[in-house]
């Protein structure tokens, strides 16, 4: 973050100073919304969440080195008091971008955002100073926090942009107007809040390309018709990517190694070069191509891009994260989140990695699937059976039971078990696992199956 005085911050976000002995004191370190992540010289933003109110930790944050607290009320320590902390963070981030000039890259999609962001950041970091979204901080709070990490040396600012309803991307792009925008895909994530079908999701995701300037780039997935349909919604230059021959940035000769890691020939207008990804699943090719399209739009050649993709490693946990136990059991933790598209991709990747090894799926629910939720969960059950998983354990009542019922009725030989909670899942899976098994764990984050994956990864039966 570039140094800013408390007085400058107050003017930028319309705050009044309260209990501030020195308005000229400078904030020189990043902003945090978790008091445990405060660093000396930083700013602490006190937000009220479902489980805790940051205002209660204002003193702790200042004791940890925060120069002041951005708060909705006086907190007994140096504070910048505003009506709306979230809005103030956005205003502060927009102010910072007025003082620095990185190339802002926004990316969105129903699945694959975080993996693509991580790949792209690792490609660009080899070329110039890059700031990218941490973890999945892609919402109204997370995006400003990322922007506020930028400084005068930052050349590329890679922003993962999430949208759970229409208008979200319009808000985010208002804080950080992108020069480059990439849309990965249109699926059924957040369907409950966006509308009744993919067209409604596409309407929301397309807000990103509408925000692009005429001299910017809209990078669209040629393999997704809903994404292709966004071409008429932007004045920016369009660059297509995908496996389609019509895409200037594309993959040819896609193949998988014995660890289910894809390799391909990257083709761009600037040349071609081989890529070998260190991620599992054929669906990762599309994520890599999205990153390659951004790099191409920014002027990198094919060899630079391919080298960066090949050297890239998984950075974010809970997304096809692999742990090998001493007894030969492979645990695949894909429990950060789930929707039908990511569930299909994960199950197929797990099966490809397993080869002839015995496979166990531990699955919870997929959130925000509206009135088609039970049917979507049943589809997952049929896929588990069709892929010939040996064991299925579903966790929780309601929709996960539809997954179990569908798998059982498919009569493909899968042994189906149902449990009520994570503790039971850990106990049952631990008892059923045999040396050499591959166990795949996935659900939407609110179901808490990440704890199950972590427990299984540290348990050797």
UniProtKB/TrEMBL annotation:
Domain Mur ligase C-terminal spans what residues? Answer: 318-444
Enumerate the subcellular locations listed in this protein's record, separating them with semicolons: Cytoplasm
Q: What is its EC number?
A: 6.3.2.10
Q: Which residues form the Mur ligase central domain?
A: 108-295
MF terms in GO: UDP-N-acetylmuramoyl-tripeptide-D-alanyl-D-alanine ligase activity
Q: Name one Pfam family in it.
A: Mur_ligase_C
The annotated pathway is: Cell wall biogenesis; peptidoglycan biosynthesis
Give the residue range of the signal peptide.
none
Q: Locate the Mur ligase N-terminal catalytic domain: which residues?
A: 33-75
Alphabetically ordered keywords of this record: ATP-binding, Cell cycle, Cell division, Cell shape, Cell wall biogenesis/degradation, Cytoplasm, Ligase, Nucleotide-binding, Peptidoglycan synthesis
- SUPFAM superfamilies reported in the protein's UniProt record: MurD-like peptide ligases, catalytic domain, MurD-like peptide ligases, peptide-binding domain, MurE/MurF N-terminal domain
Keyword ATP-binding present in the record's keywords: the answer is: yes
Cited PANTHER family: UDP-N-ACETYLMURAMOYL-TRIPEPTIDE--D-ALANYL-D-ALANINE LIGASE (PTHR43024)
Briefly state the protein's biological role.
Involved in cell wall formation. Catalyzes the final step in the synthesis of UDP-N-acetylmuramoyl-pentapeptide, the precursor of murein.
Query: What is the protein's name according to its record?
Result: UDP-N-acetylmuramoyl-tripeptide--D-alanyl-D-alanine ligase
Naturally occurring in which organism (per UniProt): Nonomuraea coxensis DSM 45129
Chain's gene name: murF1
